[in-house]
Design brief:
Length: 463
């Protein structure tokens, strides 16, 4: 059998060249070229460390640093030619380096393996992605808080079971979204904190025989410390799973927001108007203005959940240490990050332009006897036990239904036949304004409480 080496990285051991389909099947450069800048940063740190430790000469170190800078520029300018035969981003860059600077390029891989290299790259990528996601979450929160401030006094129905339950303010409802995003940001920050350890120096799996300084490379790359176990360092992908889990929860929240926007924007509700530039029309029904942006965000939630399950399944039952399976970690992670960033951006841009239809919200808040609980609470204040009060109010609602009227328009004489505890002042409790203003405690819907939380949120977002 003739010796045709397609791959100089391991050709020495092989008697025949890789099958063409297998080469394409195993290659990852089509997607892992996304890691080029991270890969170069890792190589710079590794080479500088080898020079300091006397493993590489100063001259080699300088040639490598200059060569990597030039390659980084080529890639940034889109001039770099990626070769599938060179399998992945790591070998493409290393080969180019050797083409440019000669033998020094061949010495870069001393004391290193693609296993610790890729683990480092993907951590650097995830760390930077989390920074961007946190920035977009903040931008969306600011948009929500600004709208909440504008609508702090706007009364709308609060729902349970999608039935009108009790009046709330639109500002209060919006600030509930803000709180969801506070937790999302916390989950991403936790993930960032735990992932910030350097796998570099773990080499293939067991470490290396060269006198390396893993603390130096960790510090150079902004990691808090090197990973403590070389086997774990090259095989751990928890951080990718955690990032995707945080993303899945975030998307769950965005899909809930999307759903409410879609319902509120519907002709039956008309609580809000989405700006035209975030909607599209129908090619057949001229009257249509469709809420495509929230619908797409809701729809994209599925793929992000899918990526989380893909990664969990990818890692399931993998024996230590590195397995080629791990090459499959990248596309789900990249697509998760891209999807989440796009959805956050779409909402952050759209939400400030939402028009609230205050009259429609107010009208809907009054329907459905939404102040019934307020009447019960009124009776309790007058000495009636809550269960008895509940019964009395039930009868009041029944009466109002029979007469096709509302609670606050039932005459006092009729109300008093239901309970003598009811006095003239009951009507204050039956108005929507009375109802929301009465919920005046921390976390309640009273506009003073909502405004206080908005103030805190604004201060937090400014830092
Ligand atoms: N492209 C590989 C990956 O993404 C790089 C590591 C390859 N290591 C190996 N032993 N084949 O995981």
């Amino acid at each position: 059998m003739h010796k045709a080496k397609t791959n100089s990285a391991w050709g020495g051991r092989f008697q025949e060249s890789t099958d063409a389909f297998v080469a394409a099947f195993t290659a990852s450069v089509g997607f892992d070229q996304r890691l080029a800048q991270e890969d170069i940063a890792g190589s710079r740190a590794h080479a500088a460390m080898l020079v300091k430790q006397g493993v590489l000469s100063e001259a080699d170190g300088e040639a490598i640093a200059r060569g990597l800078d030039a390659i980084a520029d080529e890639i940034a300018r889109g001039e770099f030619v990626w070769d599938t035969a060179l399998e992945d981003v790591h070998m493409n860059i290393e080969k180019r380096l050797t083409d440019r600077i000669g033998d020094a390029g061949k010495r870069l891989h001393t004391g290193r393996s693609r296993n610790d290299q890729v683990a480092t790259d993907i951590r650097l990528y995830t760390r930077a992605a989390i920074e961007r996601i946190l920035g977009e979450i903040r931008r969306l929160q600011a948009a929500i808080v600004a709208l909440a401030e504008r609508e702090a006094e706007t009364i709308m129905p609060g729902f349970t079971h999608l039935q009108v339950a009790q009046p709330v303010t639109f500002g209060h409802h919006l600030m509930a979204w803000y709180e969801m995003l506070v937790r999302d940001a916390g989950r991403f920050r936790d993930c960032r904190e735990r992932l910030n350890q350097s796998p570099l120096g773990a080499a293939a799996l067991a470490g290396t025989t060269y006198p390396i300084d893993r603390h130096m490379t960790a510090a150079a790359l902004g990691f808090a410390a090197p990973c403590a176990n070389s086997l774990d360092a090259v095989s751990d992908r928890d951080f990718a799973i955690e990032c995707c889990a945080a993303a899945a929860t975030l998307m769950m929240h965005l899909s809930r927001i999307a759903e409410e926007l879609i319902i509120w924007n519907s002709a039956a509700y008309r609580f809000i108007d989405l700006p035209d530039r975030f909607c599209t029309g129908s090619s057949i029904m001229p009257q249509k203005k469709n809420p495509d942006v929230p619908e797409l965000v809701r729809g994209k939630t599925g793929r992000v959940y899918g990526h989380l399950v893909a990664l969990l399944t990818l890692m399931k039952s993998q024996p230590l240490a590195y397995n080629k399976d791990n090459q499959e970690d990248k596309e789900p992670l990249f697509d998760t990050v891209n999807t989440v960033l796009a959805c956050l951006r779409a909402f952050a841009d759209m939400i400030p332009a939402i028009e609230a239809n205050r009259e429609a919200m107010y009208r809907a808040a009054g329907a459905g006897y939404s102040t019934a609980t307020d009447l019960a609470d009124y009776l309790v204040r007058r000495g009636v036990a809550f269960r008895d009060a509940h019964e009395i109010v039930g009868r009041a609602v029944h009466l109002a239904i029979e007469r096709h009227t509302t609670l606050d328009t039932l005459p006092l004489t009729d109300l008093r036949t239901l309970s003598p505890a009811i006095g003239e002042d009951v009507y204050e409790s039956l108005t929507l304004e009375g109802s929301i203003n009465a919920r005046d405690h921390f976390g309640g819907t009273a506009p003073v409480q909502v405004k206080a939380r908005i103030q805190q949120a604004k201060e937090k977002l400014q830092n």
